[in-house]
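Obj.: predict assembly geometry.
Materials: sequence records (below).
Method: joint structure prediction, all chains together.
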Amino acid sequence: MTAQSLSVAALWGATILYAIAMVAYSIRLAREADAKVQAKRLVTAGGPAPDVSLAEQTGSAPLPRSAVKALGIARAATLVGFVLNGIGVLARGIEADHVPWSDMYEYSITGAFVAVGVFLIVQRRRDVTFLGAGVTGLATIALGLGLTVLYAEAESLPPALQSMWLIIHVSIATICSGIFGVAFIVTGLQLLKDYRDSGTPRTNWARGRALRFLEAVPKPDVLEALAFRLIAVGFVLWTFTVMAGAIWAEHAWGRYWGWDPKEVWSFVIWVIYAAYLHARTTQGWAGRKSAYLALVGFGALIINFTLVNFVFQGLHTYANAS
Amino acid sequence: MARVKLDNYAIEAAPRLGFKGWMRWSWRQITSMRVAIILLLLFAAAAIPGSLLPQRPREGAKTRQFLEANGWWGEFLDKAGFLDVYGSAWFTAIYVLLFVSLIGCIIPRCIAHFRAMRAPLSPAPSRLDRYRPKASGEGRRDAAEAIQQAAAELRPYPGWTGAITGYRVRIDERVKRGEAQTALAAEKGHIRELGNLVFHIALIGILVCVGLGAAFTYRGQAIIVEGRSFTNSVVAYDTFSSGRLFKEESLEPFTLTLNEFASIFSLSGRPEDFTAQVVATQPNGDWTATAIKVNQPLGVGDAKIYLQGNGYAPDLTFTDSDGNVAYSGPVVFIPQDGFYTSLGVVKVPDVTSGEQVGIKATLYPSAAGTGDGILSIHPNLSNPVIEFTAYTGDLGLDDGIPQNVYKLDEAQLSPVRGDDGQVAKLVIVPGQTVGLPDGSGSVTWNDTYRYAAFDIRADPSLPYLLAFAIAALLGLSLSLFGARRRIWIIATPGGDEGPVILVTGAALAPPHDLAKAKIELDRAMTKAKL
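Observations (raw structure tokens):
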């Protein structure tokens, strides 16, 4: 078995396992939400005076067996998928004989690895099972698209990329994408949850069955705090990415900043997240408005990775090794 | 924050703002956080068109093509600054406003922070009930002793990290509601604000450095053929640009000689390595022989030399109709694609008799196919072929208008035609001599050299820029990860029951940090309760 076939096989395995994990996490979330809704009903039906705070407290009603099983499957699939993903990335690096983040395919498989890694690290510190479906879903998409659309044969590095800054600059950029990806899911859940809980007539649709899984998701302010912590880490690392990129550009191209499309969009991402960090502590912007900014920031990140590589002409186009 | 209300005259009886009032109002608006956020978002949005449209400073040729292809719409975009976004008035306006807002925000905060760092801590509140998280318990020690223990737990740890991780502490012996108590107030978080201020000041530093750098910088491109030299002076450059405050005398007159240029391409033609072997000679005679690679520039004095491009320079000789050598030397061919299909121009003004001659040539390093179907299949020189067309007439060199050496001005030239009356496309390989069909001369291909294109640049602001960037990164980390917490612990003697004391404590921190604040509160409480 060559490194190349090992890498591809392991990554397909990881894709399938992430997909399984996503389904299992979704089932778990749905069951948990059902149990919570039921617990609330029991309380409201049983007592003469419905007490919301009591209903909240009894949220930890015993879960059906299927929910416990689903969580077991989800965790196992995520962990094994993560290991396979790691093997796939490593084998690709060995096959190409350079760090596995020099083109879009490598960037997406490494980015998926980091996103799941971030999730696993956060999971060790606090219970974030509710994020599982989103993160594994995102990883499934990244790996699936990578293997089918973005795949490129491993090639030797062109002279422009033969630098230690490739290891530093791009690895940190990849880690940032993973962190911002997880933060994006947290923020998305925060907004949905906020919407569902707001209780205005306009948001009635959000209280239907389709979004019932949100019952199992923490309160918006808890999600906001988590998203902020992730984005704070991501922002510092992104600042470093941009600075390291500038140093590398100075070294390779003789200018530290030239408004190349990749530089423009990296700058745009930085400014949007900077606006987010200011907004979340500003009256009138904290909460929902700042959360929208976080979503826009991730949108810009995706544009930077896709449109800028495919459509715009710039010095970074070798990242799309076709 | 007060709402923006422009219509100060809507209510008749309302006091008029007047000039000073309006100035104050404007200043308050511009330094408000909301305006800062809006300016940040505008800044991001305004940067985007620069990635969608061709930008004049970066890609001049493409911008001209765009203008030609888009008529009035292109004109309009050009006038509105969209073809030079980062130099446009509106982009400049946004970041100037942003930085004014930043400075207006930072200065008062610096003063406030300086005062806060020197101000004594405020004592613990008398009742801790309304704070979360809180803790309580009983101890069997003297109240003052218990509080001392808790304080020791919270005080700065030894070493430089203590300044970041430790607390400022204040202890009060006081009487509240007729009860004697010992109260501890501990606070940390100054490092957070300090980091925040350092970050923002460093941003201003970066902007100033960029501005100064642009004023003092110079940048030029020099093409050197193997075996030839280049002397660092403005006239020697192919292209040269410099900042407003740059002085020509500041160019260090070093000499750069290209001994050899080597490239390695993969079988499929992907570049794997470019190396220029050069000798750099300083004015005082010191010299170094070294290699310049794409990611490995050479520093000479305060300038740096970057390898930016390369190509082939066939050594051609043109012999005129009288048999005299009218031109001889390497001709720089500019690569047009990844396989180094390259275009070159030879201008021969000094013919002994007859009209001036110009040659437009295409080099195929690894030629395949013949006639019109000729193309290069690899960048290496494995089957080099030059296909060229000769022109006779007036090259237009005597008009005094500077000409592009890589372009033939065909206005007063006519192509040399073959016997069939068609424009003659001639093919030549190394070592060969090919005569023009009209007998106006012959071309000989003697040899092929490599050439390298170097960018030579000096920017005195770089070290300061790096220092500010590092300061910004450190400040940012401190401001985001430094904790801002307050912890209060009050110990009250238990009255008649002897040595028993009642200890209560509470912590105050932003929501995302409450869990950690609780851990520290508990740690201090454990010490107090012993």
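Conclusions so far: Chain A has a mean pLDDT of 87.
To do: check interface contacts against the pulldown list.
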